[in-house]
Design brief:
heterodimer; A: 239 residues; alpha/beta; seven-stranded mixed sheet; 7 strands; 15% strand; B: mainly alpha
């Protein structure tokens, strides 16, 4: 695939102690994209920031750990401040494949939607699938893949998610979707392939206690912010 | 009965003094003083005139008036704790945004310096 020369696009990668995988992630992106890559270093204690910088990525160093979403929002605020038109978010653990980058931008460039989610709903255990069903039901959100961090946002979405209103969220998942949903932004899902996580583990699903915590947090979000809202989000069916 | 009244009133006075001392030593922000001084005053007054509680209890048709005291005290504490959590959330929000801003400014500064050197 040829390089895409798009100066108005920024790729945001929040990373905390991802020294083992960040190298490959950035090289993979460089094969498909020659715009700006911003690694948000969430107070890592390893070489994540140095490795990213050596590979030519720009690095935001958070002086204190903010968690996955706090780091992501820092990147979105940078994108907003510097006038980028599209922000694409990727995980630092190598799950997301850069060859899908173009697919992710296309619906926004064609102004078909405000947010594109690279979805891979096949992943996840039975328990997780059940939890997602429950959350969809409660929140009135129709997306298949609620937790995918592989997303593209247009300027309108960036503006909304960079606002103080979104600051107290903890993950880039249902809370973010609910906010976009409430503000009437269009969300589209496109199917993408994802690699199994080879190095490191999920920030959310690290232990049973963490899972329980996450489930409770999401449940509260659903009830407080999404109950009884009708789904009106456009959605491309999975074939 | 008199001794209970005096002890409660003294408790109110001690609380009020503690608040003033804490503010004096910069351990407590002035804006929190109002709540605590009012509480101290409440303890002082109710300590000296427990009849007030009895009167209100009777008026509200509560059979055992001290219950009223407990309900009032607990609700005040609940309100205070809830307001603390609300305040803490708003500070958390401000802190997060500040951290984000520092990171952005630092990166911009570095960029600017690199540019200058070239």
């Amino acid at each position: 695939m040829s390089l895409i020369n798009q100066a108005n696009i920024i790729i945001l990668i929040p990373a905390r102690n991802e020294a083992e995988s960040i190298h490959e992630v950035i090289l993979d992106i460089r094969d498909h994209f020659n715009g700006e890559i911003l690694v948000i270093n969430d107070a890592s204690t390893d070489q994540t920031a140095q490795i990213a910088e050596q590979l030519g990525a720009k690095v935001l160093n958070l002086p204190l750990q903010l968690g996955a979403w706090g780091a992501m929002q820092a990147g979105l605020r940078y994108a907003l401040k510097h006038g980028f038109e599209i922000a694409i978010t990727m995980d630092a653990d190598g799950q997301h494949q850069a060859e899908s980058l173009l697919d992710l931008q296309m619906p926004i460039l064609a102004n078909e939607t405000d947010v594109v989610i690279g979805a891979f709903p096949q992943r996840g255990s039975t328990a997780r699938v059940f939890a997602w069903h429950l959350f969809r039901l409660l929140s009135g959100i129709s997306q298949e893949d609620l937790t995918s961090g592989f997303r593209a946002y247009n300027q309108q979405a960036i503006k909304l998610l960079a606002s103080p209103e979104a600051t107290l969220l903890d993950y880039q998942d249902l809370g973010v979707l609910l906010l976009l949903h409430t503000e009437g932004l269009r969300i589209q899902e496109i199917p993408v392939e994802m690699r199994p996580r080879t190095l490191g583990k999920s920030r959310i699903f690290s232990s049973w206690w963490a899972v329980a915590n996450y489930m409770f947090y999401t449940l509260i979000l659903c009830i407080a912010k999404g109950f009884f809202k009708s789904p009106f989000i456009s959605r491309r069916r999975f074939s | 009965m008199i001794s209970t009244q005096i002890i409660t009133a003294i408790l109110g006075l001690i609380l009020a003094t503690t608040i003033i001392v804490l503010i004096r030593r910069d351990h407590l922000h002035t804006r929190h003083a109002l709540w605590w001084l009012m509480l101290a005053m409440g303890i002082f007054i109710l300590g000296f005139f427990p009849i007030i509680i009895d009167k209100i209890g009777f008026w509200l048709n509560i059979k055992y008036p001290p219950t009223l005291l407990f309900i009032l005290g607990l609700s005040m504490l609940l309100l205070k704790v809830l307001s603390l959590d609300i305040q803490q959330s708003s500070q958390e929000q401000q802190l997060r945004r500040l951290i984000q801003k520092i990171a952005i400014l630092e990166t911009e500064l570095k960029q600017y310096q690199n540019h200058e050197h070239k």
